[in-house]
Design brief:
This protein has 492 residues and is α/β, with parallel strands linked by helices. The chain is built from 21 helices and 13 strands. It starts with a strand and ends with a helix.
Length: 492
């Protein structure tokens, strides 16, 4: 398909929501698969909800997720900039453009001035609710002529501009994910197109921008589905081709309700803060509302681009399952080199006060082995300090299984042999650590589980954990001897 152009068009109202990132991911995958362009537009016409710094955060979040912006709003040298031939890409800079097309709709009779006060509209809605009707504008100002309206405006009357929908007319459009959708205009409202402050509503701005920016496919959340017939009508009223629509299912919590801040983490910043990798989060989000043909679950970005198919987008909301996210993210955690894992984990490690970059520089092998030792048990970066606990926490034996092993029949011989061998050694190298348990076996005459379980329990206070030879190397001679002595105090 030639010249596919899609956009992600968030409002700068705070941090990027996880559902917003999913919308951006689907737009990006579609653009890249079709050899098209992925635009970022900022929809900031609702000035009451604008949050300072939100645009910068949005761009940083998209960049972090690996979604490269081809055109529109970007960051260069830490500053927000715009690139492309269809700008401005920030709606508040486009007010003159919207006014031109609102005027065109007024002149052609597809829109009208409305002078109803907020008080009248509130009373109207209240009355409709009492009667069990859907609250909607009653069309009181539809019959006011353009000449009379302009006279009233000249006298200083406040107004909005509304879309003049035809009565009892079916509006049909094709949704690439949902098929043909038809809605009758009697079920719709004469939508406000221009507010009294001179700013357009979303409905007006989105149609003008999507057309002038040459967008071919509109991939957005299903919450905009009821508004789409109005947008289709606006395209027709302005004499423009209607783009292809693809509406995405919502991202739901485990109660099948919309994911919201009240239930916990919902922003990309939250998940980034917990130490999810961008590859893990993007891979998981792609599967919340879309499924591949062959049930594959682990995808690189390139594989997602190749496999993505709008016909396989679900019609019902996808439940956000943190356990599934953890499982997918753990796959990417295992793919990191020990050096990458250490580098990415340092903010969490330093916050926990375990060790510093200066410590790493003094003994890089020690910390590389530490990362290799804990890596397989990690789902996300924030777990690294806790996984290092066996090395840094105060040694206590509280687990029933560990106490049982320290009190087992073979434990005294194993602990004594360990102490004797270690006392004769200098510092333990990685090679020494690999041979130690064989020497203990020889000296104590104890084998298998009866050897390893009491030894692990005595050294770590646990019966399960990472590779024992790595633990021996990381703890070192003095710390192990101290722990073995304390382990004896737990014997009954």
């Amino acid at each position: 398909m030639d010249n596919v152009r899609v956009r992600f068009a968030p409002s700068p109202t705070g941090y990027l929501h996880i559902g917003g990132l999913r919308t951006a991911v689907y737009n990006y995958l579609y653009a890249k698969q079709k050899g098209g362009k992925f635009l970022l537009r900022i929809e900031d016409t609702d000035r009451t909800r604008f949050v300072e710094g939100a645009i910068e955060n949005l761009i940083r979040s998209l960049n972090w997720a690996g979604l490269e912006i081809d055109e529109g709003v970007m960051m260069k040298d830490g500053k927000v900039t715009e690139e492309g031939d269809c700008g401005p890409y920030i709606q508040s800079k486009r007010l003159d453009i919207y006014k031109k097309y609102v005027d065109q709709l007024l002149e052609s009779g597809h829109a009208y001035y409305c002078f109803c006060t907020k008080e009248r509209l509130d009373n109207l809605r209240e009355g409709q609710k009492i009667k069990g009707q859907v609250p909607r504008y009653d069309g009181l100002c539809r019959s006011i002529s353009l000449e009379e309206a302009k006279e009233r405006i000249a006298k200083g009357e406040e107004y909005v501009v509304r879309l003049k929908l035809p009565h009892d007319e079916d509006i049909t459009f094709e949704d690439e994910a949902r098929g043909k959708i038809t809605i009758n205009t009697n079920e719709m409202d004469d939508q406000v197109l221009m507010k009294s402050d001179g700013f357009p509503t979303y409905h007006m701005a989105v149609v003008v921008d999507d057309h002038l920016m040459g967008l071919t496919h509109i991939i957005r959340g299903e919450e905009w589905l009821p508004s789409t017939p109005k947008h289709v009508y606006l395209y027709q009223a302005l004499g423009w081709d209607v783009p292809t629509y693809i509406h995405l299912p919502g991202v739901l919590n485990k109660d099948h309700k919309k994911l919201s801040k009240r239930q916990g983490d919902v922003s990309v910043e939250d998940f980034k803060g917990h130490g999810y990798l961008p590859e893990g989060l993007v891979n998981y989000l792609a599967l919340v509302g879309w499924s591949p043909e062959d049930n594959q679950e682990i995808f690189s970005m390139d594989e997602l681009i190749e496999a993505f198919d709008t016909k396989r987008i679900a019609r019902t909301g996808g439940v956000f399952d943190v356990k599934k996210l953890d499982w997918i993210n753990s796959h990417y955690m295992k793919e990191l080199s020990a050096d990458e894992l250490l580098d990415m984990s340092m903010p969490y490690i330093e916050k926990a006060g375990l060790f510093t970059k200066a410590d790493v520089e003094k003994d890089p092998e020690h910390y590389r082995v530490l990362m290799e030792t804990i890596q397989d048990g990690l789902d996300r970066l924030e777990q690294v300090p806790e996984a290092c606990g066996f090395l840094y926490d105060d040694y206590e034996v509280t687990e029933e299984d560990a106490l049982e092993q320290i009190n087992s029949e073979s434990a005294p011989a194993v602990i004594d042999a360990l102490q004797e061998i270690l006392k004769d050694m200098d510092a333990i190298s990685l090679e020494d650590a690999g041979k130690l348990m064989k020497q203990v076996q020889k000296k104590s005459g104890v084998k298998g589980k009866n050897l390893y379980m009491p030894a692990r329990a005595a050294m770590t206070g646990n019966v399960h954990g990472p590779e024992l030879s790595n633990i021996i190397y990381l703890l070192g001679k003095d710390e192990i001897l101290k722990r073995l002595e304390k382990a004896k105090s737990y014997r009954k």
